[in-house]
Amino acid sequence: MSTYTEDKRKVTTRRLAEMKQRGEKIAMLTAYDFSMARLVDEAGIDVILVGDSASNVMAGNVTTLPMTLDQMIYHAKSVVKGVNRALVVVDMPFGSYQGNSKEALASAIRIMKESHAEAVKMEGGSEIRESIERILSAGIPVMGHLGLTPQSINKFGTYNVRAKEEAEANKLIEDAKMLEEIGCFSLVLEKIPATLATKVAQEVSIPVIGIGAGGGVDGQVLVVHDMLGMTKGFSPRFLRRYADLSTVINEAIGHYVEDVKTSDFPNESEQY
Ligand code: KIV
Question: Would you state the CATH architecture of domain 13-241?
Answer without folding.
Answer: Alpha-Beta Barrel (3.20)
